[in-house]
């Protein structure tokens, strides 16, 4: 069984401290606050991050 609120984690350092940023060329991207790694965000990345942002 997988949780519905399975927060996305950084591919590099496994941190959950992610931020959604807007990139002019690539659109929405996930940015890791821990190591600075960024990648193109998927809806799976965006939705839980927004929920976390509102909740905190
Ligand atoms: Zn990271």
Structure commentary:
With 56 residues, the chain is α+β, with helices and mostly antiparallel strands. The protein has one domain. The chain contains one helix and three strands, in the order βββα. It has one helix at residues 43-55, and strands at 18-23, 27-32, 38-40. Strands 1-2-3 form a three-stranded antiparallel sheet, covered by helices on one side. β2 and β3 (38-40) form a beta hairpin. It is globular, with a radius of gyration of 11 Å. The model has no long low-confidence stretch (mean pLDDT 83). Zinc ion (ZN) is lined by residues 10, 12-13, 15, 32, 34-35, 37. Zinc ion is lined by residues 10, 12-13, 15, 32, 34-35, 37.
Q: Calculate the mean pLDDT score and round it.
A: 83
Give the number of helices: 1
Strand order of the largest sheet: 1-2-3
| Termini separation | 26 Å
Helicity, as a percent range? 10-25%
User: Globular, elongated, flat, extended or rod-shaped: what is the shape?
Assistant: globular
> How many structural domains does the protein architecture include?
1
Unreliable runs: none
Strand content: 25-35%
Structural class: alpha+beta
Order of helices and strands: EEEH
Main beta-sheet strand count, sense and barrel state: 3 strands, antiparallel
Write out key terms for the chains shown:
single chain, 56 residues, 1 helix, globular, binds zinc ion
Write the layout of secondary structure elements.
Layout: E1 18-23, E2 27-32, E3 38-40, H1 43-55
Antiparallel strand pairs: 1-2, 2-3
Bound molecules: zinc ion.
